[in-house]
Amino acid sequence: MSKYKVRFCNLVCPNNTHDPIPLPHGETVAIGRSPLTRIMDPRCSRNQLEVTADWKTKVVMVKQVGNNSSALDGIEMEKGRQCKLEDGATIYILAGQYPQKVEFGKEKVKNSNDMSAESNGKTKKRPASDNGHSSHNTKKARISNSSTVTTESSSEEEEHVKSVEEKLQLMKQSPKKHQEKKLSNSKHSNENQTPSTSKLASPCSSKCSDDKTVKKGANCLGLPREDSKWEHHDKLYVYTGKGVRASSKIAGFDIDGTIITTKSGRVFPKDNADWKLIQYKRICVNVSDAAGRPAKWAPGKKKDFSCSDRMFAMNAGLKFYTPEEYFLNQSKAKYDMPDYDPRKVDSGDCLTDPVDAKVVSSTQEMVILVGFPASGKSFFSTSQLVPKGYIQINRDTLGTWQKCVAMCNKSLKENKSVVIDNTNTTKEQRERYISLAKKAGIPCRCFLFTASSYQCRHNERYREMVDKSHKPISEITMNSMRSKYEEPDTSEGFSEIVKINFVPQFDNPRHERWYKMFLVEK
User: Which pTM does this prediction carry?
Assistant: First the structure.
C-alpha cells in the first residue's frame, strides 16, 4: 500500500498579496507586520502570531502574541492560547483581515510493489535512489516526447510552483466554471469504476455518505467541504468553511444584533475587533432582528429598520423568530408588512373595476393610462388595446412629449383610436391630450392603474431578474413621481375613469415562483 510524506508546509494568502510563507518542521515562525506578509497596519504587531508546523502529523500550532485579536476560520482567538490548524484551514492575522491558508505539500512514497510495476513499464520512470534524494551516481535524465525526468529536488520545486499556480488559477475562475470542472472530473472518475462502485459514487444515488437509505423528507448531507472559500453568485457572496456539508435543511442566522454585538456598546463598531458573541444555539429556523416591528413594540425599543429578515424567511419557507422570541422566550411582538403581498397574486383576478367595465370601444376614442412606472401600463396596452387597432403613443419610443402629441394628433385625424401609454401622473400632462380629444370630438377615458408604489417597486425588481437587458428605474424617479402625483378626476374632461388591477400572466413556472417572493425590503 502506498504511503505519502510531506514535502513542505506554507502559509498561502488567498488574495495573492504576497509569496507563500514557508513553515519548516518543528520551527516557530513569527507572523505579523513584516515584508513577508506585506502588512503595514499599525494594529498588527510584528510578532502577532507564533506558528509551528508539525510535518509528521500535518498540524500547525498557532498562538496569538499581539494585543489585537486574530481569528481561525472566522472564530476569534484569545491572546496566549494555542490553537491547532489542519491542512486547508484559514487563519486571519487580524480578525476579518489578512487571511492565510495552511497548505501541506506531499508526495507518494513507493513501496516494493510500485517499484516492480515501474520496472514492468506500468508507470512513468523516475531516477532510482535508496533514500529518496538524488545521488552522485544518478544517470543523466533521458528526454522523450512524453515526459522529462529531472532530479528529485528540481522536480519537487517545479511541482510546488505548478500546484500554487493551479490554486491561484482556480480562485480566479467563476464558481460556475469550477463546478463544471468538478462535475467533469466526477464523470470521468465514474467511467473508470466498476458498476457497483459507480453506483455508490453517483451524485444521483439514493444513499447518503454514511450509506444509510434516505427516506422521503429526510435530511441528506453532501460531502464535507475540502477548504474554506468565498463564492460569488450574481449579487450574493457565500462563505463556506472547511468541513461544512451541504444540507437539504437550512439554519438561517442574522449576524449583526442577533449572534454578535459590539463590545463598546455602540450602534456601529469602532474597528474590526469591536464585537462579541451574544447567543449560540443549534437551530433549523431563521432568527433575525429585521422583523418589521413598529416603534415601542416593547418598552424603550426602537422601530426595526425594515422587515427584510422576516420576508427572507417567508421566501425560504423557514419558521421565523426574533432574537427575543427564540433566545429569551418572549411572546411574539406585533409587526408591519408591506401593503402588497405577492404570494396572494392570482392570474384569475378581475382586471377592471368596476367588473363590467368595457376595455375596448367599438367607436373611435382616446384612452389615457395613468400609473407609476412598472404598474403594468405597457403590457396592458400591447396585450389588450393594440391588437384591437389602437395606436400606442409612448414617450419611451418617441423620445419627447412634443412628438407624442404630434403622433396623437396625426392618428386622430386618420380616425384611429389612440392609447396614451405614459405615466401621465399630473393634470398638466393629461391636459395635452384631453384637448386633442375635445378638438376631434371624441370621448376620452382614463384607465387608472391601481398598483401601489411598493407593488411597482416589486414589479421593477422582478423585471430586473427576468430581463438582464432591462434598464432599472431609480428610486429618485419613483419618489419624484409619487410626490407630484395628482389623482385623475372626471372634471378634467374624462367621460369615464376605469381602474385597472395588476394581474400578471406567467408562461414560466420558475418566473411565477420568483414573482411570488418578497423582492424589495420596504
Answer: 0.48
